[in-house]
Amino acid sequence: MGEIRAFTEEHLPEVATLYMKRMRGQPGPGSASLENYFREIFLGNPWATPDIPSWVYLEQGKLTGFLGIVPRTLEFEGRTIRMAVASQFMTYGGPVAMQLLAHLFSGPQELNFSDGASELAYQVWAAVGASPANLYSFTWLRPLRPAQTVRNFLDRESAALRLAGRAISAAAVPVEYLMAKLPVGVLRAPESPFQSRLVDADELFDCIQKFGSRDRLKPVYERESFRWLISQAAGGRGTLQMVTLSTPEGALVGWYVVYLEKRPGPAILMQIGVQRKAQFDRALSAVFRDMWRQGASSVKGQGMPQHLTSLSNQYCVFRHANTCTVFQSREQGVQDAIFRGQAAFSRLDGETWMHFADRNLG
What are 181-233's pLDDT values in tens digits? Predict the structure, then answer.
C-alpha cells in the first residue's frame, strides 16, 4: 500500500524523471531547468498554501505518482472561494491516479479544476466523481490566412503531408493577398473601429479591475500575483501581448491578451474582456485585425459560452479538442454556474499559461 504526501523540494528529481518518462516517453532524469520549473510553478507560485499543496504518491519509498496543484482565488456570487487547478497529472497506473484525485477532492477548496485533461485523465476524474465542463471543453479557430492555416495543420502530420504544406506555403502570400480583396467575409482582412494599445501587466491589471466580469463565477486577481502570472505566461517560445481597446474618441472599452506562436503560426487568445457585452463583437474583430496585421495564420481560443453567437458570426470554426475541461465541487451552486456557462474562465485561469513543453529537457 502506498502513501500520499505533500510535494516538497526533496521530490523534485523524481518528479522530473517521472515527467520525462510519462509525458515525453524518454528514459533518464529531467534537467535542472525542468526541476526548477516544477519548483517555480508548484512551490513558488504566489498562491501556494500548505493546506492545498501538490501531491506525490510513494510506494516503498519510490515516487510513482504526481498531481501538481496551483491554488487560485475565485469569487462566486460575491463570496470568495478557492480553486485547485490540477496540472502535470502523471502516474504509473490507474489505481494510483484515482487515489491521488480522491485525496485532492477531500481538501478544503470549493472547486477542483483542469482545462487540460487527456481522454485517459478524464476517465480517471470521472471515476472519482468529477464532471465534464462541456461548454468550456471545445475550442474555436478563426482562419486569417487560409492557405497558411492549412500548411500549419499539415506540418503536424506525416512527412508527405509536410511536403505538400511547403508547396502550399510557397504560393500562400500572393494567393492570400488576392483573396483578401474578394467580397467574401471570411477572406477579407478583419476590421474594427476600436483602437489597440500595447500595455504592461500593471496597466492590464488596472483595466481588468475597472471593468471586471459580471459572471456568477469569476477569477480574483491581485496586482503582485497577476504580475507573476503574466511573467509565467510570457515565458514560452512565443510572444505574449497585452492590449487595451478604446473607441476612436479614446474611451477605454476592454482588453485582450494573446500569445503568438512562431510566425507564421497561430495566435492563441488567452483572455478578452469588455465593459459591456454589446462591445464584444468589435473587440473580437480588433483581435483578428491586429493578428492579421502581425502575420498570424489564425487565432484560436477556448469556448466562451456567453459569446457563441459572436464567434459564429465572425467565421470561427468549432471543434472539441484532444483535451477537455473537468471539474469537481461539493457546492451545487458552483456546479450549476459551470454547467450553465456562467463562469468567466480563460486561458489565464487554468493551466494553458504554463510552458512545461518549452523547458530545456537536456
Answer: 444 456 789 999 999 999 999 999 999 999 988 999 999 999 999 999 999 99
Residue 58 domain flag: yes
354 vs 87: CA distance, rounded Å: 9
The answer to whether residue 354 is domain-embedded is: no
CATH of the domain at 7: 3.40.630.30
Tell me the C-alpha to C-alpha distance, in Å, between residue 40 and each of 22, 142, 356: 21, 34, 11
* pLDDT higher at 152 or 262: 262
Query: Which of 320, 336, 355 lies at the terminal end of a domain, its last residue?
Result: 320
Give 281-308 pLDDT, tens digit per residue: 999 999 999 999 999 999 999 999 999 9
pLDDT reported for residue 241: 98
- The answer on 195 and 90 residing in a single domain is no
Residues 6+ apart with CB under 8 A from 229: 221, 348, 353
Domain carrying residue 58? 3-137
Read off the pLDDT of each residue in 47-76 and give the average, rounded to a whole number.
97
* 121: CB partners within 8 A, 6+ apart: 89, 97, 114, 326
Q: What is the pLDDT of residue 19?
A: 96
